[in-house]
């Protein structure tokens, strides 16, 4: 279980605290464990919107896998103390990640811009740790299927074809997403949609632009890429996502890297 520490400073913007906190608490509800803590230089912190927030003045013990988030503040905010800056630098130097809102950074110092940018920032950090599928699940839980195209495209294939209003197809997608590593016969998808097997592919393609198999394959490939980025071998990644052999995974990865584009956008 990782610890997410919010550093609350005077004139902090409420949305910049609440947005990321909601992302990580929702992730915890969905089975991606996180513990949230709120620290400050004083026990009461006046926000830029006039609401006082309570925080602990003692810092918890941090490990390299833990995260510190520094929410954005109003223009008249006082500077951060030297002791607090020392803690931030020390956590980063020890291999931890420090994330803030407004400004520029690199490596394990991550920043975003914009009033609501903290939500995107938290989803990005969640995706780095648990994979785009996890970030996509949390985004759907927070925002529903009709996400903005830009946000959806950055997170996961499971969000890109979710802007339709066909409830039967949403049920099929829910089933595929929950069991994408398994073999899913057409009769099972038809049962979930409440229609005939003949109708499943037609409805799915009309709503999403994909066949059910192409949708499942895109989720498998996405998960495999996440495992490979985290050090898994091709053999392990292929097995974990349900491909029969490594040749299938290699072929799909090569196709995704080709000028023809990502296989998640293909119809066959």
Write up this protein:
Helix 1 (14-29) links the parallel strand 1 (2-8) and strand 2. The chain has 2 domains: 2-130, 3-Layer(aba) Sandwich (Rossmann fold), CATH 3.40.50; 145-265, Arc Repressor Mutant, subunit A, CATH 1.10.10. It has a 5-stranded parallel sheet. By secondary structure, it is of the alpha/beta class. The chain is elongated and about 65 Å long. The protein starts with a strand and ends in an 11-residue tail after the last helix. Helices cover 49% and strands 12% of the residues.
In a few lines, what is going on in this structure?
The protein has 11 helices and 7 strands. With 268 residues, the protein is an alpha/beta fold. The protein is elongated.
User: How is the CATH topology of the largest domain named?
Assistant: Rossmann fold
Number of domains: 2
How do the helices and strands follow one another from N- to C-terminus? EHEEEEHEEHHHHHHHHH
Question: So what's the CATH class of the largest domain?
Answer: Alpha Beta
Number of helices: 11
Write the layout of secondary structure elements.
Elements lengths: L1 E7 L5 H16 L4 E7 L3 E3 L5 E3 L12 E4 L11 H12 L3 E5 L7 E4 L4 H14 L1 H12 L5 H7 L11 H12 L7 H8 L3 H12 L3 H18 L4 H8 L4 H12 L11
Parallel strand pairs: 1-2, 1-5, 5-6, 6-7
Antiparallel strand pairs: 3-4
Core attributes:
single chain, Rossmann fold, Arc Repressor Mutant, subunit A, two-stranded antiparallel ribbon, 11 helices, INH-QAR
């Amino acid at each position: 279980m990782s610890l997410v520490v919010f550093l609350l400073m005077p004139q902090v913007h409420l949305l910049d605290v609440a947005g990321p906190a909601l992302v990580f608490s929702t992730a915890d509800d969905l089975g991606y464990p996180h513990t949230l803590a709120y620290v400050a230089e004083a026990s009461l912190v006046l926000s830029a919107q006039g609401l006082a927030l309570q925080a602990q003045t003692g810092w918890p013990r941090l490990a390299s896998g833990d995260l510190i988030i520094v929410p954005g503040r109003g223009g008249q905010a006082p500077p951060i103390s030297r002791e607090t800056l020392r803690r931030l630098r020390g956590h980063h130097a020890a291999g931890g990640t420090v994330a803030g809102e407004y400004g520029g950074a690199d490596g394990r110092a991550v920043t975003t811009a914009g009033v609501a940018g903290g939500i995107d920032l938290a989803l990005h950090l969640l995706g780095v740790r648990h994979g785009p599928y996890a970030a996509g699940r949390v985004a759907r839980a927070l925002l529903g299927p009709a996400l903005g195209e830009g946000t959806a495209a950055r997170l996961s294939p499971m969000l890109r074809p979710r802007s339709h209003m066909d409830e039967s197809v949403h049920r099929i997608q829910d089933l595929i997403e929950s069991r994408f590593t398994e073999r899913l016969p057409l009769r099972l998808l038809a049962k979930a949609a409440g229609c005939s097997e003949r109708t499943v592919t037609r409805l799915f393609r009309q709503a999403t632009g994909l066949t059910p198999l192409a949708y499942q394959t895109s989720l498998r490939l996405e998960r495999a890429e996440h495992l490979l980025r985290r050090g898994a071998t091709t053999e392990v990644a292929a097995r974990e996502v349900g491909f029969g052999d490594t040749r299938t995974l290699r072929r799909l990865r090569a196709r995704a890297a080709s000028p023809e584009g990502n296989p998640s956008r293909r119809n066959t």
